[in-house]
């Protein structure tokens, strides 16, 4: 069980959190402008790296805030925790070390 | 009796009576069941599981493969090990062959859980672990030391070493005293670390049997900044013909029985070893008065000083040889000894030596189970002939015998350094204590492992009495068969032969098995074969411990409404909906469920019924952008909904599949109250928060769960208006003044402020009265009184389901399953074409436009008395050959009072194009039900009853 540092509450047991999958997959600005395969990519396709992964978590049994963190999918080492502000369109995503 | 007259860690002034297999014996405080049995000359355990061969106690610890017992009487426990059960007065046990028996009586024991954070956790209270604990504790850091034995000391309990010129156990007592004096150090004995999970999270099972308080066992959840594993090592058995005979015992166990329990398990002993360890055991045996007939060492040139010391004690050392067979009936009577050449083949004459005990040391396997669970890697050390920890994956160090350090001074050095390092890395720097002088075994010379001692004749495929796993009765012949079947991986061979899968998980025999496989595969060393995966728990745990106090009423929270006491008083039968208890129906004395539901349905359709609708999820949606937010999450529009008006809405996931539905009411320009399905209320709140926080943080809107703040009473039926008139005389309840899907705020005649909505989930004229929860019960009782002269009838969820199904209203989660769009439900009307919302783009995908999608339809069984089972699969042709593709399945099925027949809802491929067609439900019992596809709305299709 992971020990996750919520940006608002500090270290808490994984049991208090909900997992939210890959981070920085924004809702498309204009879904109607996407092809079927582009929309399907948004709906169904996520990265599954062996290594560092930026992902979303929600402190569901605590402050109920969403935030992002970078976790190593093999060692479960958590490298960075970011607050929940989404990355606006056009801005660069955080760089995974 | 085999009890020695002095020595050991047993209390001769505290005799304990116990029963084993129906016979009464006496042991001593400090005994295990196994040591007490051996003291009474009872060596035998139950015969082996598959082959019925006689077996005996083979070890003195958790690695025991044979001595399974059932503890009888109060607190009965199956599948304990005689070698780990502490003896107590009145203990009653029986030997167990294979599977145990659960006590059918309710377990009255209390099982607890504790949650602890610490800077340093040390697993193992032997010399290395004690040294680590001492060093770490001196830093002032929080330290937890866990050990599975009743007293600290580990291997020192079974040896005769000295530390600092005094008996080693005096040093142990000093360390314990210093640790106990530290405010932030906690010592847990009788506590086994069983699991090592992510981020240094460990589970420790503490046995509190016989200690003050009602708690029998405690499961400790420990999160540590640093972990020091000082878990010691297990002595390996050797694989030769007849190695399973009772009287063949690990040399370490023989030493433990001698020195710790003061029990002599044999009179005339032979030792077989690959390493230095057996020499100390042989000398201990001689000084305890036993005869040592021979010490057989696989090494051609054992260390001269060991050989000399043995010979001085009158022991014959036979070097470069092995026991090639143990002979005997119920117990070993003799061993056959022969020289082995460098290729491990028999190279000389066989000589037979009589004995009643064969002590075997096949080398040491570091106890790397927890290390491996922590995802640390292992490497094979040729010099040690053992798998040892390599790269750590977490904040952990392995010390002492658990990483292959076998001499006492080395273990102390290792422990002191690791304890200080762990404290420092956790933020508490401290000096490494100096290692005191020690006596006893020095650093051992290189062992000579012999993984398979050859049989005197035949090939490995013939060696069916060379046991590799005693509990599984698996032999060299079995391994050879697996290899001939094409297995090469140790994981495959394990599963094919079941080696290592018994209660002991191959603690002692696992590396021996790897050695056998390597030998038979012709591998250069066991390192090329590797180990199987180590998984928790390290020792078997009881389910009662894992459950702790979370059972019975404390298993899961039970949610009840304010009106619940009335339901109980009036005989409601309840059903669980999520955590809620909801009345399912209210049977009259002697009334069946079927009759009660027909009666309740009749009342709601013909007179007036009342239902507790409190459990529907309610979420306040408040803020200037509340309308805009709802527009984005619902498929239909809410921003322009008039104040005091309500609208039914459906929300979809981004893939366009229905996620939830419910009625949302606008209370003010910036305030809506949303209702959700009972079981999905928390999920919907999470969903709203997720979209607001992660996609639309610019929207000014906030959500609050108010499910528990409001009680909701649904008054349903053509005469409901009369009830409302009596209840709220100042409210104009006429259809013109109070139309469908509107709400009114009013003071009821009983003085309670209420929000009343005209909402119907039955198709009948209906009112939902919402009051603060505190007034829920009083308001319900007021409704009952107001409707008494009309025969107002309380109804439950079963009737609610029938009424809504007659109207074709789907229940999300029952008639849908996450693959159903609003269009599949026939709800095109609820999907806006004018705005974007979550899921909209998906309705333009080719998949959602397929004409053969499963669509919601009604079903009328051809025989109106036959009820379709919910979940039944549907096919088009009664004569179809199986297997065939199902057209769909039944989602809801009921008897209808209004229709005078049975009916159902179903999802059927292209269903709306099949109205009038007959489909068939083949049943598990071979029967077949024919049914006609109809529209979903079977009752009042024109909706004339809604306004009364």
Topology:
The complex is a heterodimer of chains A (97) and B (948).
Chain A: E1 3-6, E2 10-13, E3 18-22, H1 36-44, E4 52-58, E5 66-72, E6 78-82
Antiparallel strand pairs in A: 1-2, 3-4, 4-5, 5-6
Chain B: E1 11-20, E2 23-29, H1 33-39, E3 68-71, E4 77-81, E5 91-95, E6 110-123, H2 127-137, E7 143-146, E8 162-163, E9 166-167, H3 168-181, E10 185-188, E11 191-197, E12 201-207, E13 215-229, E14 233-235, E15 248-250, H4 251-259, E16 268-273, H5 277-287, E17 291-297, H6 304-312, E18 317-319, E19 321-328, E20 332-339, E21 351-354, E22 357-361, E23 364-366, H7 369-373, E24 378-381, E25 386-389, E26 396-398, H8 408-425, E27 438-439, E28 467-469, E29 474-475, H9 476-484, H10 490-497, H11 510-521, H12 543-547, H13 564-569, E30 573-577, E31 580-585, H14 593-606, E32 609-612, E33 617-622, H15 626-633, E34 646-652, E35 658-668, E36 671-676, H16 681-694, E37 702-705, E38 710-716, H17 720-727, E39 743-747, E40 753-757, E41 766-772, H18 776-787, E42 793-794, H19 797-806, E43 854-861, E44 873-874, E45 888-896, E46 901-909, E47 918-922, E48 928-934
**Domain module count of chain B:** 6
Estimate percent helicity of chain B: 10-25%
Distance between the termini of chain B: 94 Å
CATH architecture identity of the largest domain in chain B: 3-Layer(bba) Sandwich
In what range is the share of β-strand residues of chain A?
Answer: 25-35%
What is the structural class of chain B?
alpha+beta
